[in-house]
Amino acid sequence: MGNFFRRLGDRFRNFMIGRYGTDSFGMFLVYALLVIIVISMFFRGGIVGTILNLLTWVIFIYTWFRILSRNYAKRSAENRWYLEKTAAIRKFFRIKKKQQSERKEYKYFKCPECGQQLRVPRGKGQIKITCRKCGRQFTGRT
Ligand SMILES: [Zn+2]
Q: 88 CA distance to ligand 1 centroid (A)?
């Protein structure tokens, strides 16, 4: 039985040789697919349900088309386009995640002048904060 699965694994690897596989855009498509499937559960029947169903199939087929594609140049160009278009959003979430993980040690302030995010160690009480971007000073409680 182990041999059977090993052979199956080998055949799958051989099949995938020279094919594009997954990338960031591919993962985004998979998540988008899951979200649309969940949403479509609330719209069974009607026109919205039909459209979402159709969209599910289109994304599903497109996702697999990309995974199995042999056109590396085209697929990585799509991925670059995706990364470029979502750079700001991804940066926003990256910063939020970092702030979340550091929230015990640091407090974040937004400069009232230029909007720069400033990180200050917690537990220092009322302090004067100087913006490192524009030099504006303001007070904050840490
Ligand atoms: Zn500032």
A: 20
Q: Select from 118, 100, 98 the least CA-distant residue to 109.
A: 118
Q: Which residues are registered as beta bridge partners of 126?
A: 141
* 70-81 confidence digits (pLDDT tens): 999 999 999 999
Residue 23's φ and ψ, nearest 5 degrees, are -150, -170
* Cβ–Cβ < 8 Å for 114, 134: yes
Angle at the Cα of 91 from the Cα atoms of 89 and 93, rounded to 5 degrees: 70
Gap between the Cα atoms of 141 and 126, Å rounded: 4
Sequence length of the chain is 142
135 CA distance to ligand 1 centroid (A)?
Answer: 6
Residue 86 has what DSSP assignment?
T
Q: Is-above-0.85 flag for pTM?
A: no
